[in-house]
Amino acid sequence: MLHLSLFTEDKRQNLITTREGEVKVGQQAQLPITNCNLADNLTQAKANGARFVILGIGEDIGPRANLGRGGATNAFESAMAQFLNLQSNRFFNGKECLILGQISTQDLQLDTQSTTEQLRDQVAKLDERVITVLTSIFDSGLEPIVIGGGHNNAYGLLMAAKASFKRPIAAVNLDPHSDFRPKEGRHSGNGFSYAAASGALGYYHVLGLHELKNSEATLAQLETFGAQWHSLQQIWIRQELSLETALKQIAKQLNNTQSPVAIELDVDAITNMPSSASTAAGIPLLDALKYVNYIGKHCPSVYLHLAEAAPSCHVAGEAAGHRETGQSLSELIYSYINARINAL
Ligand SMILES: N=CN[C@@H](CCC(=O)O)C(=O)O
């Protein structure tokens, strides 16, 4: 059974503010047909000019199973509230996107009394849903843009991409944490180590890795796998190389693998972005936008995954969190779309 909650016309109407003489992205974007199956919806959207599928995975069992904070349940709504209200114009029409909806997670969410082990078991169940839905999307030839949810979903995305493209994937991840923790049960801190062990991850590069937010055991595991990284300190603090130079090196290494490329971003890399592991010492949003745009333009990217945004983790409350995560995710989505449309 497909666990998918489709985006509806009612939801669109609730989110868009119309204005005479203006056309919003949300008025042009494609929506799924409710009584049509997933494969047919994807085929239909593609025939009507879609290239991207926007999908949410609202859940916080992954971060909580990693002993982190909850809240990553409603970033998709925040993102759509902003993205669908952007202007449709000469730069971007909107019809290139199918706003598919969200993977259903309600029945997997557990209350605050649950044990870590119970949460990890639920994350493994979610993995199966992510793999099923994402494999269909990759098989359709459309590019998913996924709004999390925890970074645990990188595993399902990579497994689905491997199943569809029939080869391991080269991933780049802008993240202070490598999420290469031990395989101790599924959670948001080990999506990439599980994907590596399953053969779905062929190459891995972490951009902005925080030198003191990864255990020695994790760093050793990364090295054994052959992963590469540029640390946050190297680029943004000690300025040993510029972001531009790092991006050029990363794109070259990704392209050398001749593999499909996954673009991953944990928004806890961005200064004060509401998320489980939010930080005051992060990178500017504009640098995250440059990262997504550069890699999307210079590499054969097959998806974008924006993980960990948690509106309720904003220090000024949830309403401020919705606004900040919504605007940021919406800019990241456009940065990716713009890159892919102009890909070299
Ligand atoms: N995906 C995030 N992983 C980090 C953050 C943990 C947290 O949520 O606080 C990690 O495992 O260290």
Verbal overview:
The structure is a single chain. The protein is of the alpha/beta class and 344 residues long. The chain has one domain: Ureohydrolase domain (Arginase, Chain A, 3-Layer(aba) Sandwich). Helix content is 43%, strand content 16%. The chain contains 13 helices and nine strands. It has helices at 9-15, 25-28, 38-47, 61-65, 75-83, 116-140, 153-165, 191-197, 216-225, 232-237, 243-256, 285-298, 318-341, and strands spanning 4-6, 52-57, 97-103, 143-148, 169-174, 201-209, 228-231, 261-266, 301-307. The protein has a nine-stranded mixed sheet, with helices on both faces. Helix 3 (38-47) packs across helix 6 and helix 11 runs parallel beside helix 12. It is globular. N-(iminomethyl)-L-glutamic acid is lined by residues 63, 66, 68, 151, 177, 179, 181, 188-189, 266, 276-277, 308. N-(iminomethyl)-L-glutamic acid binds next to loops. InterPro entries: Ureohydrolase (IPR006035), Ureohydrolase_dom_sf (IPR023696). This is Formimidoylglutamase. One of its GO terms (molecular function) is metal ion binding. Keywords: Histidine metabolism, Hydrolase, Manganese, Metal-binding.
Itemize the secondary structure elements and their pairings.
Blueprint: E1 4-6, H1 9-15, H2 25-28, H3 38-47, E2 52-57, H4 61-65, H5 75-83, E3 97-103, H6 116-140, E4 143-148, H7 153-165, E5 169-174, H8 191-197, E6 201-209, H9 216-225, E7 228-231, H10 232-237, H11 243-256, E8 261-266, H12 285-298, E9 301-307, H13 318-341
Helix pairs in contact: 3-6, 5-13, 6-7, 7-8, 11-12, 12-13
The structure holds N-(iminomethyl)-L-glutamic acid.
Residues 63, 66, 68, 151, 177, 179, 181, 188-189, 266, 276-277, 308 line the site of N-(iminomethyl)-L-glutamic acid.
